[in-house]
Amino acid sequence: MARPARPIVLSAQTIAAMPEEGFSEAATRGDVTWKTLLSSSRTLSDTLTSGLARCAPRGGHLKCHRHTHPEVYHVVQGRGIVTVDGEEKEVGRGSVVFIPGNAEHGIRNEDDEDDLVWLYVFAVDTFEEVVYRFGEGGTKAKL
């Protein structure tokens, strides 16, 4: 039986206390961490999954990958370069990026001092539905 969706408010303290996740294979997937904020596998929510991702200064990055679901980035801190289907664009605090489904994309921190932090949003119930495919071979990686 599905749980009913309800309004959810996460305080800054609650978000700060959430554990950060990351790739065990950073060399092939990227030096990035994230906190899943909304996902029906963790919260009484549906329809949308979102979280905060973070790349450290001086080289933090999420390698180029694909997934079938479209995604939105909203940069909340720092500056960097987002690549979508081979096209690079500068992003900074306040930037919003729409990434179509199956578009190859990645992001890297271009700042020497500040973290690059962005909110990501998928129109899926759970983060587990999003299958990341890295590299030419399409290596699948569930997060």
From TrEMBL:
GO function term, MF aspect, one: metal ion binding
Claim: Metal-binding is one of the keywords in the record: yes
Gene3D superfamilies in the record: Jelly Rolls
InterPro entries, alphabetized: Cupin_2, GPI/OXD, RmlC-like_jellyroll, RmlC_Cupin_sf
Keyword terms: Metal-binding
SUPFAM superfamilies recorded: RmlC-like cupins
Domain Cupin type-2 span(s) in chain numbering: 56-122
Name assigned to this protein: RmlC-like cupin
Protein source organism: Bimuria novae-zelandiae CBS 107.79
